[in-house]
Design a protein that fits this description.
239 residues, 8-stranded mixed β-sheet, alpha/beta, Purple Acid Phosphatase, chain A, domain 2, 3 helices, 6-stranded mixed β-sheet, single chain
């Protein structure tokens, strides 16, 4: 099975359109949070309606988890609440927060950013913020943007793969731990297309693809530019 992993669209409609018309061939789409954007001029409720319609119309299997920008403001309680709007999607090929699915012999668990406790038995976890103290959670400019509540669950359940986002400029896009591979494609708001990772589950191999005009921070030891991509604005890192 081939997984296309994206994250942190922040209500970039052009990138949603890219998924429908220009994305690489894949069996499963994974979106690891922050589909909405709290800083966008479009009211949050209108963003929810637009993204919900897009998710309901998406023609392929998809796993989605909520990010911090996807939460809902509750006027009466005057606080942010979980992304309950994801519960009302009608597309049966979309699995969201708290749902586990098995596809082609691979089990996938979607872990929303406000879920407690976190983790569970599955081959692949879809999370927004990666576990803290991983290279994909370390910001290239310093600091750690990871989720400390995922550290012990990863030790306990030992998923094969954790697909994340949230940290826009990670020190590295991948880290292979003792039992788990951690991936984060990063985010460049001015890129023509979203940074994305292709995962082939039979070997758990991964390939990061970015727009060189707005590059992510890559692991220089594995970054390569194939001859076929020269001049195309595309760079890949394979591991």
């Amino acid at each position: 099975m081939t997984i296309l992993h994206v994250s942190d669209f922040h209500f970039n409609k052009r990138w949603f359109d890219w998924l429908l018309h220009s994305a690489p061939a894949h069996d499963l789409l994974v979106m690891s949070g922050d589909m909405l954007n709290l800083s966008d001029a479009t009211p949050h409720r209108k963003q929810i309606a637009w993204v919900s319609d897009w998710l309901n119309d998406y023609p392929k299997p998809m796993c989605v988890c909520s990010g911090n920008h996807d939460l809902e403001w509750h006027d009466r309680m005057e606080r942010w609440t979980p992304a309950y709007w994801l519960r009302f999607l009608s597309n049966r090929n979309v699995w969201t927060d708290g749902q586990r699915v098995e596809l082609n012999g691979v089990s996938i668990l979607n872990i929303g950013c406000t879920m407690r406790p976190k983790g569970g038995d599955a081959d692949i976890w879809v999370v927004h913020a990666p576990p803290t103290k991983t290279l994909v959670a370390a910001r290239a400019g310093g600091g750690d943007g990871g989720d400390p509540d995922l550290v012990e669950p990863v030790r306990c359940h030992a998923p094969k793969l954790v697909l994340s986002g949230h940290v826009h400029n990670p020190l590295h896009w991948r880290e292979r731990g003792e039992t788990t591979l951690f991936l984060n494609p990063g985010y460049s708001p001015n890129a023509e297309f979203p940074h994305h990772i292709l995962v082939r589950t039979e070997r758990m191999s991964s390939q990061l693809i970015t727009d060189v005009r707005a590059p992510a921070t890559l692991d220089a030891s594995s970054a390569t530019l194939p001859a076929s991509a020269e001049g195309s604005g595309v760079t890949t890192a394979v591991a």
